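Recap for those who missed Tuesday's class. We walked through two folding examples back to back. For each one, the amino acid string is listed first and its predicted structure tokens come directly after. Nothing is annotated here on purpose, so try labeling regions yourself before you check the end of the notes.
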Amino acid sequence: MASAKQSRIMKISIVLATYNRVDALRFVLESLETQNDQNFEVIIADDGSKEETRHFIDAFKLQTKLTIKHVWHEDLGFRLALIRNLAIASASGDYLVFLDGDCIVQPDFVMRHRQLAKPGYFVTGGRALLSQALTKEVLSWPHWDFGRFNKELLRHRVHQGINKYLSLRLKLADGAWRNYKKFVWRRIKGCNLACWKSDALKIYGFDETMTGWGHEDADFVFRLTNIGLIRKSGSWSTEVLHLFHKINDQSQAAENARRVREKIMAKVK
């Protein structure tokens, strides 16, 4: 098991997926600038965004202290698995934290993931969903301001602007209660997922044959479990603030789900 000192010096690579949403990406990057643990790099996994995104990232890199790499490929449809794998190959960190470009993080996000990182484990975290109205309000601010958001959190919850409150306020320590005993499909969110880079490489990353939205994250989690790793819940610790967006094209979701179930059944047999 890694010592506390080793954990502190362990470099983290945040693999930040994005696609043509500069307004949200700016706020996510600004939230990463405010982290109380700064020992990380950001790999932007860009699934074929237009030039506007590249211009924004180039400009942002000039005025930030964050270490940012931009990994892009041509837009040939939803190919999140492939661009994440390209980002993994570009990552210099020992530990990977997967995040989406519309998920703002709290100031202790990196620190909490570091505390949960242990050899033989990977982490699936949670998210708090913002309503369309609250998302519009937040994105109208000149910059991301966690203090401002946090001050009004109870009001946002009462008025259904956000679907969680206590798990954003109350942070719980690590413990055996976080460990899953077996693979379960629920609560897998690719927008808040972490593992050792070496473990991701052992399973050859995400399944690139899974195209279109849906379940490439469940497939990744199943295959990590399948090599003997223990899944740990990051809930009540690492919750991200998921900005509202319209529902993606889910025409491929059923086929992707079928393929994951097929792998699960093959393992059971």
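Example two. Treat it independently of the first, because the proteins are unrelated.
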Amino acid sequence: MALPGAAAALLARWRESDLWWSFRRSPVAVGAALVALLCIGGALLAPWIAPHDPFDLAGLDLSNAFKPPAWDAEGDPAFPLGTDGQGRDVLSAILYGARISLLVGLSATAFATLLGVLLGLVAGYAGGTADAVLMRIADVQLTFPSILVALLVNGVVQASLPRELHGALALYVVIFAIGISEWPKFARTVRGSTLVERNKEYVLAARVIGLGRARIMLTHVLPNVLGPVLVIATLNLGLAILAEATLSFLGVGVPPTQPSLGTLIRIGNDFLFSGEWWITIFPGAALVAMVLSVNLLGDWLRDALNPKLR
């Protein structure tokens, strides 16, 4: 009985907050949220709403290959967005592929956030040698484009793994590669905020009463530096999804047995100039809609949390 009451109170506080007021007054944010919910909902409900199972080899029929979208004169209503070279329904492949793209994007962003926040807290609070070493590593990594770092990490990890494990661990390797390429953004932001917070009265009081460093960082400093982290994580989600699509397009991302939107675009690119444009255009449009909606939400959140713009 307590949980519904707490949820109702939390919902009431949210409706009375400045963030909700800012969200309602921003048509761009509302539209982006609707598109993002549509993409996420379609991905999560793919097993139930997809017209076909694109990974069921027994259900594929090569006679259905290269069918155009349903509104074309040669189209088939059973395949609303047409089929690819193997007779797979493009709409179903997009819904299932979006699941992989979102899984990689969310997991990589969560990993980068946790690692960056932890290292940023340590660097900002401890200072000295730890701060110098961690920030110089971050500075060096930031001199390279994130996609190059992800390619390097992915190649090194894949080369160090036994060949028979490549397919089973490919998804986790991509998540690790993208996450490890993005942590400096979070670390530098958290480190700067921690440098400001560590000399405030509440931190000094915590030291006086004998609290340990780890407890002060996690229970006192961390809650006060999470605002910018939330904005960076939202914006970084779109970048992580794009990074996964880029790796998959280059053939070093998720395995073909688990195709993401990037893999579908790469497959369709082989047929783009032969007239089967729908195989790559529709997955590309889905990727653009997903990333654009997330980026617009991130831009709105950044402005909404900026006190100078209120």
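Answers for example two:
The chain has a mean pLDDT of 85.
Residues 28-54+86-309 form a domain with the MetI-like fold fold (CATH 1.10.3720.10).
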